[in-house]
Amino acid sequence: MRCIEVTGARIHNLKDVDVKVPKGSLVAVTGVSGSGKSSFAFDILFEEGRRRYLQAIGLSDFPVQDSGFDRIDGLPAVVAVEQRTGLYSTPRSTVGTRTGIYYLLRQLYVLERGRKGDLRLRDLSFNEPAGWCPKCRGLGYAQEFHEAKIVPDPSRNLFQICEDGAFGGIKNLTPGLADAYGFDIGTPYRDLPPEIKKTFLYGSDRKVRVDWRSERFSGVFESEFPGVIPHLHKTLAKTSSAYRINKIENEFMTRVSCPECGGTRVGERARSATIGGRHIGELAGMSMAGLAGFLERSGTEDVRTGEGKALLSEIVRRLRQSETAGISYLSLNRSMTTLSGGEIQRLNLMSHLNATLEALLFVLDEPSQGMHELEKGNLVSMLRELKARGNTVVVVEHDRAIVGACDHVIDFGPGAGNNGGRVVYQGPIGGLSCARDSLTGQYLSGTRSIPRKSRATRRQVTATTHFLVLRGATAHNLRGVEARIPLGLMVGVAGVSGSGKSSLVSDTLVPLLKAKSAAKNGEEEDDAPPGGEIAGSLEGQENLSGCVVITQSPIGRTRTSNPASYIGIWDDIRQLFARQETAAGRGYDAGHFSLNGGSGSCPACGGSGALEVQLSLTSKVGVRCEECGGTGYRPEVLEVRYAGKSIREALDMTVTEALALFRDRPRIARYLKILDEMGMGYVTLGQPAPTLSGGEAQRIKLAKALGKLKRGRTLYVLDEPTSGLHDHDVERLLAILDRLVGAGNTVLVIEHNVDVLSYADYLIELGPGGGPEGGEIIASGPPEEIKANPRSKIGPYLYA
Q1: Domains located in the chain, CATH noted
Q2: Which of 323, 432, 525, 777 has its CA 20 to 30 A from that of 515?
Q3: Each residue of 122-177: pLDDT tens digit?
């Protein structure tokens, strides 16, 4: 068949639509957020392709639920290239292991330096005992306890600190410590002498008197004071609970570069073998662009075998491909858990190109996310290369440049949720602008546009404007940067990928603000916050009352984490159901409506609604739990109704629908209204957190922050908040950010979106390139000045 034909698609909000996807084409699937485009691309095309694959490999004995469509003809094997960061949960998975380049490097070292059999592939693997650094076991970092994390609030006394940190029996020893050293147990930590602080943290051989009272023992005895840090070390050594280990590491420890391997992850044998004077761990620490250049210069002289030269050529070819993908600033040792959704997707796209696969259907989720305007041409080239190999490429996309480069477009809408789910237009890209019901077409044709500001309507920097002044920033590729951030404005931070935007804001400014806040509360001014010493100094923070950082990291990593639980309305909803007559008569409390293994959750799946099936040692898939039918609850719990709805039906409601259901519940309605206003009305209350994109997770965090908004003079830091947003939704987001600034706050936005940067009051641009070619501020000022600046890379694209 020449097309993939889908008949009667009705999953989620799709309204029994028929769609034809031309094979061998580059196809854009567009529409406002929540219009049904992802439901079509991923929940129908990809999921049906996956189901047929599972059937082909012998898992057909699992029952097939309602597939959400009547018929699909002509569907080839499907590959989904998604942005989900939650798929990577271990720091052992790196850019090098994901792309296979690190394995090729290992082969190269063995060929060139292991000809006498003294170097094996496993000796170069940081994921195997033979090759990893014994100190850090291949992680490249060590975990150390940090005073600022053990004592986050120095105004608390020792007894309170132990209660806050749940330091077990240590709490009962603190009164005896006070008696032994002659200080008042009520003294705040910040007012204690250094000797007492040291004893509290690290312990002492000196005996302290303990008056112990418990169910099992009561009495007075003497004991050495073990110290909080030795106590936590002992707990880590004894416990087998992953939850307990993660809690201690996340709450009380900080990562420092491994002192033995210098962060390179590999052991002594690997570090003794060099090419071009560098061992494999050092090469893996370079940016891919830098490594390609190094191997081209040094490798040709130091690699002597014919096999080695061929391998070297292939390594360099793959590294150069990272430039086309716009991720050449990443190093091979970069952990996959630290990448953004857009970086993960482009890395996976690069891997698929290297695999030379043909006659497949590739489904991509907004591959332009996180890309500068200069880099989008390379992305189009990659997509066209996939197509040229005989594949069909479907991209769910909002970016006008990417959509305009496609052969065919399928536009869903006209609105979101119940107002969407129809095919507004399908056909050649040229006809979309003439589709009157299409919001996408209206923005493409220019009949509708995102609001723009002129110099006269922007908030101006004046003689009375206060600044945050950051000096001497050297994190990652920053070159002693000095940045002046005007307060009370919407400030955009621009620059090509890897230019240093996140290094400046997330890795320097925010930690320095946290350190200053800790110092204000009594911590030593020069104490480094978690993560070690930060290079740089900060002035002007006294003009802020607080800092709210809203990132794209997941709001949770389990299926039972969802938007309702994150924004804080889930407890209210459960308590509301527990007060209903049926629930009260049966003695149900809020716990019966919990999905986290509560008394009302399904005993088979523990409330997740799904069971995992192991396909291989490294691959799992989720299938619906048959005992509860995917609801996550026992059937009797679902008999409890509020306004005619069960707890499961409430969770399956979109934000817009739930707003109508809970309109008489002010606290619940307040948060739902904020989500709805920022274009998130299509998300369901119970959507599993791992299925949310980074952009969706960030907007949910923003809604939570806005729901708690009580004061001005707050700095809001956002990292690409327009990810996953249609132009219509960008309009709504800008109105909300403008409202924040109008209330006396400052909004600092790391962005590539030209409409947002053009709308900002002030821009700071880093560059000129990425990685070692970046790290400088090349332009700053209102957009009109940036556009006129010849050094600016974003200037030519601004609407100013």
Answers
A1: 3-86+339-445 (3.40.50.300), 95-140+258-324 (1.20.1580.10), 144-257 (1.10.8.280), 467-553+695-797 (3.40.50.300), 563-677 (1.20.1580.10)
A2: 777
A3: 999 999 999 999 999 999 998 888 888 899 888 889 988 988 887 867 887 888 88
